[in-house]
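Run folding on both entries below.
>entry_1
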Amino acid sequence: MEETDSVNKRAADLRQQINYHNNRYHVLDSPEISDSEYDALVQELKKIEEAHPELITPDSPTQRVGAEPVQAFGVVTHPRPLLSLSNAFTDEDMDNWFNRVSNLVPGQKFDFVCELKIDGLAVALTYENRMLTTGATRGNGYQGENITQNLKTIRSIPLSVPASAPRRFEVRGEAYLPKEGLARLNEERARDKLPLFANPRNAAAGSVRQLDPKVTASRPMNTFIYALGWADDNNMPGTHWEIMQYLKSLGFKINPNMARCRNLDEVKTYYHKWVEMREQLPYDADGVVIKINSIALQEELGFVGHDPRWAIAYKFPAVQGTTKLLKIGINVGRTGTLNPYAILEPVNIGGVTIERATLHNEDDIHRKDIREGDWVLIQRAGEVIPEIVEPIVSKRTGDEQVFYMPKACPECGAEVIKPEGEAMHRCTNIACPAQALEQIIHFVSKGAMDMDGVGEKLCQALFEKGLIKDA
């Protein structure tokens, strides 16, 4: 009974964490953890739910894709969901995926189409009677934001298509900002004393989700179309490759690096080539998407949960670098959790200067044997969020310090406890100023009351002046 309660509690905790990070990534465009850390949380929850299907809840993140759309734009319901892909991280993962698919369709031979996985914002474009009528974000996979006017400003998106196109159809693609465009945009923002965009993906998301389409039009956005979502015409080509060539003939921009592969060995060769060459690309890519070419076979294989069995994303390795961990700081969250983070000597990894890294909790710090003063291996997993992989033990001088969580809250001085069965330490003072401030910040955020023009800095200023005390 105790074991069941423990598993149930862990599943609930994972659901809460994943939903929180979904919101940070898909709605706020401000992720706090790396893709690999997020994937690990999802995989752990999937394993628990597979072993204990009675624990699956309707709101479990394994039962949905992404996060709810924000309400600043109109909501578009996708006629066919824009679903996610399962991930592979090694050649062995690819072998396992291939074997699973082969066992489902014994005796059938099939080829593949490989495409670079562009790091931008997924969009769906609907055409009716030759005209672009709707452009939407993926959102939660079932409903997205109506950003039609913004997408119309991107020159690679056709506003109309030839008469040979189906009467009604939808294409899907990635809106992205080229690396050169990001550099120019950040130069302009620096001159205007505005915050710089950390990477092309954040810049792309921020550009197409502007309430003023003129802002989008001023930025060098681009697109690649990667799929036909649906069409009224039943006489479409029978392979994904042929469909992509057909869409190209209609005026859509298709990635020129897309390739047909006859077998899994050719798929792996394509992948490893781009692992070595990705820095030469004019845009950010974080992996390769592999699809079975035959549309009939795709339909036969279908889906498992929210993932198509006939496609997979083979993610690129994280970008890594080394630097010195100067100190471990503590942030007190709105629920009283003490969240450690690494303060680093600034290091440039993948074109981004890294000064902070996530540290989950004391147990994780000790498990990795991370000490203050260590030289550490940093990786931008998922090309975005930095994390400490491991200390470089060979560089230790003996001056490094083992880290322990404080006994007193660094904000209010109250006793700190670690509840049994939990990984996080907590401040026991419900009146802790840090908790109160974080609660206020959460209260005004888009995930709660969504107060326009009220952000973290304003909340902090009002709180420090005593003009607001709690949420």
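>entry_2
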Amino acid sequence: MNGTQHGRDRRQGVLSLHWYWLQALVIAGSALAAALLWKDIPSTLTTHYDLSFEPDGFGRKSWANVFLLNIVQLCLLATIMGTNAVIAQVKAASSADKESGEAKQRKFRYANSVFLYGLSLLLTLFFSYIQATMLYGWPPQALRAVTIGVMALVAGGIVGLVATVRRLGLQGQGTGDEEHWLAGGGVYYNPGDPAVFVPKKHGIGWTVNFGRPMGWLIIATLVAIPFAVVALFALMT
């Protein structure tokens, strides 16, 4: 790992992107296993489970059905890595004590960065488990316990993040630019502000500066990703 890069990322309040190599290896390993075991994968695959985690949807073995979850994993990884990089550049919230405010913001960014990494790693492993259940005959009954466990861990992570934010006193600070907050403080529009992401005026986290073209591009990309995955799936089947 590049020590200089790691130190710079930590000073900016985010995890180094090098940490995401672990998730890339998980995705690559899952895809490679499916490719190497292709002949052993059954010709009919379970593609959906009902609320009781019993198979209720089936499809023929195809590149789309076998590798779709790997594509979803890659999209998730790219999205989280991009978000992590943006967090390092987010505009600081307004604070009477600038030095203290910047220190709190670094801690806030780091807490968010760690949460996003944990969430991404957890979902990556979860998708690999679902893929293995579909392809290799792993018992679907165990999927219920795994799913509940994942949901509990995500909920616990959110509670921990909210507790950290409240402890640091960072909820709902905004940017101090009152005239640029529209729709009751729900939308930030300031073409003169170079920041793409700013702290929310109300609640926890950040929102997009809709006065910047990049802000609109990010929103459009996030909306387009699910449609792109569905379209790719349709083309591959």
